[in-house]
Amino acid sequence: MGKQFRNKSILLLAIIMVFSVMAAACSGNEGSNKGNNASDANASGTNAAANKESEAPAGATELSLWTPLNPNASAIVKSLSDVLMVQEWEKKTNVKFSFEHPTGAGADVVQQFGVMVASNDLPDIIVWGTNNIQGGPSKLFQDGTIIKLNELIDEHAPNLKKILDENPDVARQVKADNGDIYVFPHLRVGEYGKYKTFAGQVIRQDWLDELGLQQPETIDEWENVLRTIKEKKGIAPYTSEKGTLLGTKSSYDFMGAYGLGKEFYLNGSSVVYSPLQPEFKTYLAKMQQWYKEGLIDPDYATNDGKAKDAKMSSGKAAASFGYIGGSIGTWLPALQQSEPNAMLSAVQYPVLNKGDEPRFTETSWAYANQGAMLTSANENPAETIKALDYLLSEEGHMLKNFGVEGTTYTLADNQPVYTDLILKNPDGLPIGQAMAKYFIANYAFVGTDDDRYNEQYYALDTQKEAAKKYAEFADNAATVLIPPVSLTPEEADEFGKIMTDINTYRDEIVTQIIMGSASVDDIDGAVEQFKKMGIERAIEIQQAAYDRFNKR
Amino acid sequence: MQKLMQDLSRNKAIYLMVLPMVLYYVIFKYFPMYGSIIAFKDFSVSKGILGSPWTGLENFQAFFDSIYFWRVIRNTLLISVYQLVFGFPAPIILAILLNEIRKKTFKSIVQTVSYLPHFISLVVICGLILDFTSRDGIVSTIIEWLGGERSTLLGSADNFRSIFVTSGIWQELGWSSIIFLAALSGINPELYEAARVDGAGRFRQMWSITLPGLVPIIMILLILRIGGMMDIGFEKIILLYNPNTYETADVISSFVYRKGIAEGQDYSFTSAVGLFQAVINFVLLIGANWFSRRVSGNRLW
Question: Which residues, by range, are in coiled-coil regions (chain B) (predicted)?
Answer without folding.
Answer: none
